[in-house]
Amino acid sequence: MTDALDAGSLHLTPAVGYTALLLVALSTVLIGIYGLRISRTTGDFYVASRTVRPWWNASAIGGEYLSAASFLGVAGLILISGVDALWFPIGYTAGYLMLLLFVAAPLRRSGAYTIPDFAQARLDSLLVRRVTSMLVVIVGWLYIVPQLHGAALTVQITTGLPSWVGPLAVVVVVCLSVVTGGMRSITFVQAFQYWLKLTALAVPAVFILFRLGAEGASITAGGSVFTTDLNTTAHASLYGTISLVIALLFGTLGLPHVLVRFYTNPDGASARWTTVLVLGLLSVFYLFPTVYGILGRIHTPELAAGGAADATVLLLPGRIFDGATGDLLSALVTAGAFAAFLSTTSGLVVSLAGVISQEFFQGSVTGFRRAALLSTIVPLVIALLTDTLALAGSVGSVFAFTASTICPLLLLGIWWRGLTDAGAIAGMAVGAILCGGAITATAALGAGAGDRWVWLGQPALWTVPAAFLTMVLVSRATAGRRPTTASRVLARLHTPEPR
Amino acid sequence: MTQPSEPPHRVRVTAPRTAARATGASFPVAREMAEQSELGQLFVASLIRSQLRLALVVAGGFLVILMGIPVLLAVFPDIESMTVLTVPLPWLILGLGVYPLVIGCAILYVRSASRNERRFQDLVDDD
Known about the structure:
The structure holds two protein chains of two kinds. Chain A is mainly alpha-helical. Chain A has one domain: Sodium/glucose cotransporter (Up-down Bundle), CATH 1.20.1730. Chain A is built from 23 helices and no strands. The longest helix of chain A has about 40 residues, at about 325-360. Chain A is globular, with a radius of gyration of 22 Å. Chain B is mainly alpha-helical. In chain B, strands 1-2 form a two-stranded antiparallel ribbon. The two termini of chain B are about 30 Å apart. At the A-B interface, α3, α6, α8, α12 and α14 of A face α1, α2, α3, β2 and α4 of B.
């Protein structure tokens, strides 16, 4: 990857990059301060949160969820693997459908703020809480790493600075804002980030399409953009596609930063409508990375060969427009990309720090700050030690891991009164070992492993059922350990709030 | 709620490490009844069953359609050469067509789930 980037021709004017990055950091901090004031004058945090309308809430969920993988990774993947890449945005979006069907309203009614809270309340066991906390922290760390890789790529391309600067900058901004409390789960900041990201992709895309249309050129080059000759990867197998979709669909509902957002809905019914709005917002958003990916197949094809496909979104506007217009549009997409790393990372850090501080620092304020540092430094070290993989792909394996561990716990915990603490732990352990093992083995085999190993590269199709099966069988075998509160908790999860 | 004249005091928000918060909150009479009386438990069990059935039906239908797409493409590779305005059909279906399906399923589900809950509330209120 660095070879392609060192060529120099890929760099944008550094001033453009610096301006965009500074503007995003500044506006995030400013809106954080403004939002903090709003949340203080409205009373305490909970009351402020509970009056949040579904529309704001949905924007905030979208803002936190659309990460580096969505903003840069989807277009990059379309560039190298064509139509197969379209499964990623479908999976990221439809994951929220599964969340709506099985989790949204019951989880809101559970009163749990984090997944470990829910696990403990449902199964009445401190050990389950510990295990769940550990898994949540692992998932969060693994999910932050691709964000930092995306930041490395963006900063390197837009400013020409070495690749460690990007991750460090994101970590410093996130740490500062989380530690000073400026970004404390404030719906306002995250909602702003959604609209910033959408604008940052939509405006340049519209400009580019108009320009190409005005030049009379066929936008799809007479359909030749779609030929598989442009792909640099092999066509995905049927198994690979289905396994990937299962991972994305069922991984979404276990992501630690997603659950926290649902707690700011006033009741279960509005949690449902918020999710429907999120689906609309995500559907609109994903149109644009798709457009960039398709256009990139004609206008920036050398990025695929150079291994820098994820830079498509950043470089495309500069390829179509020269001079000031090109610089402005490039600055806009750079700002959007930086917003993506910042919002997802800070959402993850806030929820991770909450879990870590409760688990190890007795939930004090100083503990929260130490936990915030801890939850950023570990992924920073991992990100600096590892090479940038394709962003959408590496996020995909985090989804597979979540789908094999936390998803069965949530689904069986919410819908089956027979779940026991022993069953939950056994199921999560089996899922974590199988899926974690498959991911590690794939990394060890390297990229050229070939079709024979696709069952290891996309493990969800067998690790998710294995985790579910273990959880059910062990729970059956230990039926005596069913918590006595199970019926009461289930009734609370599913009965509607009073009219 | 606090009086509008006096400034609201700050409340420290914590998530305690116990299940107390989840089970100790006060709940409306109808809900308590539903949880404790035998008839109420029956109502709750039936509500959970119907909500689960609904969720499984919608998820199942969606997954069958979604998984049907790659299966159809694998069985009939000729579909890939069909185009609308130079765009091949698979690109159109996966890039645009799936999203209205997702949103349609979501709205269908929310309507039906709310209807199940209304029916439950009517039962409990009558009881």
